[in-house]
User: Fold Probable allantoicase from Actinopolyspora xinjiangensis.
Amino acid sequence: MSRNQEHANDDPYRSSLPDLASRIYGGSAAYANDELFAERENLLKPEEPTYQPYSFGHKGQIYDGWETRRRREPGHDHAIIRLGLPGLIRRLVVDTSFFKGNYPPEVSVQGCAVEGYPDPAELEQADWEEILPPSPVEGHTRNVFDVDPPHRYTHVRLCMHPDGGIARLRVHGEPVADPRWISDRFDLAALENGGRVTGCSNMFFSSPSNLFAPGLARVMGEGWETARRRDDGNDWVSVRLAAAGTVERAEVDTSHFKGNAPGWASLSGCDAREADPDDPASWRELLPRTRLQPDTCHRFRLPVRTEVTHVRLDVFPDGGMARLRLHGRASEDGSRHLVTRWFNRLPPSQARAVLTGEAGLDAAAAAALSARRPLSEEEALPTELTALL
Ligand SMILES: NC(=O)NC(NC(N)=O)C(=O)[O-]
Assistant:
């Protein structure tokens, strides 16, 4: 774990991972033991925090964050967040912007993974695992912590030692889909299914990860937008699919981009199981250069159907796009990858709950299968797991 109180932009890889807790992806501030001064929901707002000096409500100065009262008893304050995208957490940003005389001297973060829809009282009883031990933070600062916990979490708990206020909590990480919710044909590029941006020519105005976010973009800022190009090249983004598979249909959505949609787009694919994605010769055209309209969701059936692990979108010459959907089917080894990646990363308590619940194993058999992890992606799946799909 490393700590950096300057700025997250030193390592674009981790900060460009999606914020698993963001309200944009359905994150929810399920509980806080106290929020007298400012509400816990502010923690998950996608926009940067703001502050207006000398603005007083009934409880005190108004802050854009989560703020508890001054503690007069021993202990600490905590909030529980349900991740919109459960996954592997790689970077925490504890943003104390504008909290100067009232930030917590230390914070800690734990994670848990639970089946179903627990209420706050049930969540308090979950098996919480340490992600960040109590660690000092500065006021009015983006406090960045790189972390590598081994498990896929559905919830995180943020603790302030002993009390205070935090503007935003960002939980950057790699979403890991629950394969029980993946159907035969699905969006192989969607973040929620495990698609991940691997490269991009330009992200001046907004992040390419937005292309693969759930739902529709509400405004231009929720898409991917490049700067105006002043050379002969073209902009592009590449994505590693959630699983190896065949893309059958693409949705190329330029909604909200009216004066800045690309004129044309093309798609190409690469199979990293047998070729190097860094070698331009490894890429094969899936959709030829095709004219686009501004502010339009285009749907294309792909003329070339071949198994790929990566897809690249080229836009000509530049511009912005709201969403890119790549609907298709996982290959046999791709399906196996989706199941093993999920199952191997479940904390032991959730693995046992899955196996004794839906899979119907007794406690001893569940413990034995759980202990066989990590399962190899090369071998056939145990029947108890295929039965869940
Ligand atoms: N001026 C303050 O910010 N005071 C208090 N906080 C709010 N929100 O008024 C406090 O005690 O932390």
About this structure: The pocket of allantoate ion is lined by residues 37, 60-61, 63, 67, 70, 102 (CB under 6 Å).
